[in-house]
Write a structure and sequence with these properties.
CATH topology of the largest domain: top7, de novo designed protein
Number of strands: 20
Number of helices: 8
Oligomer: single chain
Shape: globular
Helix content: 25-40%
Strand content: 35-45%
Largest sheet: 6 strands, mixed
CATH architecture of the largest domain: 2-Layer Sandwich
Order of helices and strands: EEEEEEEEEEHEHEEEHEHEEHHEHHEE
Structural class: alpha+beta
Length: 316
Amino acid sequence: MPDWLVEEGIGETRAILLDGDTVIAAKCRWHGELHAGQHVSAKLTTKRGTRGTGLLEDGLELLLDKLPRDASEGTTIACAITRAAITERGRYKLPSARPIEAVQNAGPDTFASARIVHRFPAGAWEGVWEEASSGHVAFDGGSLLLAVTPAMTLIDIDGDLPPRELASRAVPSIAHALRQFDLAGSIGIDFPTLETKADRRAIDAALDDALDDWPHERTAMNGFGFVQLVARLEGPSLLHRFATSRTGMAARMALRRAERVEGAGTTLLTVHPALKSKIKQEWITELERRTGRPMRIETDPGLAIETAAAQIVPHD
């Protein structure tokens, strides 16, 4: 049976659903962020009908909805986070919450129920991370190109096969990408244009089968090959994180690589200059505690942001 595993990283917590050697799904939470399902107490600062804003003790602002009619400004309300904060190009969307009694059918928290492991199997997280970083997923006969926009996540299908065959072969990879990158919200899929209604219905049926256990709503394929999916959005996907904070993703991966090297000496982490300022001192301290080795960071402008290198060198 597939098994959810959690790896407690530095600066982030990672989760993968593993079936043998195959990663079926993946999730990521950054430390210090609110997450869906988390319970907080917020002071109601503004109210308009059943909506308003709240303030946490640390000064973080929330969007609130489903407020009781008799709730008044200045009162403290026990809330559950329904969507984490999301950064989009040109704007920042505050986290959303509701009074705990107004939250229905809250699903289990994967991070709380999964099995915690010291390390994921070799290559498991790296494969997910690299595909999310590139936004490119290859399949037999074609590829998916994924891009994040403020309106929706777009999936384009590219390849040289006949349109019906290309569309059919893309469906399993689309279903896998949705889970592997933790995609939700509004998602547009641009299939090759299929001339006949029978072909379009066949791809619709294939999507129904492939996404049978993935909660969502969707449109039927239109005459231009476009399909829209809508799924409950609870936080940023891996693609969103790369789109809005590539250096943040790369800094955390750099520390993961530094943590995984073995040997006696000093951990030397070589990174692109843009990453050095993203690596917090508290992260360095935690890495040194975990590894029992001192750490030194050097920069190399010739490195890509995503290709930090870690090695063990003799003590100075």
